[in-house]
Design goal:
This protein has 195 residues and is α+β, with helices and mostly antiparallel strands. It is built from 3 helices and 11 strands. Strand 2 and strand 3 form a beta hairpin.
């Protein structure tokens, strides 16, 4: 398998292929430290006060009709939080307000034959209000709030982004830790409006 570097400039010699499928970037000299260059997927796990998770089911995304968390790719120049908020705005609606809490989990997965290593980052956010209107590539999607156990008992088809009960349960537990313990010294991100 060969890495397709179409569209990559030479980057002044800072991009190298160490394995056939894993580009590497180097920090500036004199250190010139190598780092693996991963494309990144962002999943926004949105939870409400009833500890329900917002999931969407697309009539066009594969697998068709499978319930999934809000997800997409991190764009060049974005931070993880910026990318997660953009995806919320695009897929859940411009008026949705969320409070970012933190990272639930990160892992790598094979996206396709050309991208065997993609970083997947799950960001937990609390729903603070606003109308949910699926947009962008989720236009026409059904949406609903699910309890984790209800979701897995339903027999409904699940997208890989929402197919791990342990991960979604971890999101609920972290919500309880970060959101429901005002007596602890935990600094939370302020509510962010996507407008």
């Amino acid at each position: 398998m060969r890495a397709d570097l179409t569209g990559f400039a030479n980057l002044s010699g800072l991009l190298k292929i160490v394995s056939p499928a894993q580009p590497v970037v180097y920090s500036t000299p004199p250190r010139s430290r190598p780092f693996a260059a991963f494309p990144a997927a962002i999943q926004a796990v949105i939870i409400n006060e009833q500890e329900e998770l917002l999931l969407l089911a697309s009539p066009t995304r594969q697998p068709v009709g499978a319930w999934q968390v809000i997800s997409g790719g991190l764009e060049a120049g974005e931070t993880i939080l910026d990318g997660a908020l953009r995806e919320v705005r695009e897929e859940a609606g411009q008026g949705v307000r969320v409070r970012p809490l933190g990272i639930v989990h990160a892992r790598t997965f094979q996206y396709d034959a050309y991208i065997p290593y993609m970083l997947s980052i799950y960001y937990l956010m609390v729903y603070e209000g606003g109308e949910i209107v699926p947009g962008d590539d989720m236009v026409g999607s059904a949406w609903r709030w699910w309890q984790v156990d209800e979701l897995f008992a339903s027999g409904e088809p699940l997208h890989p982004s929402a197919n791990d009960a342990w991960l979604l349960r971890r999101a609920v537990e972290l919500y309880r830790l970060w959101h429901n313990h005002p007596d602890q010294e935990i600094e939370l991100q302020e509510v962010i409006s996507n407008q």
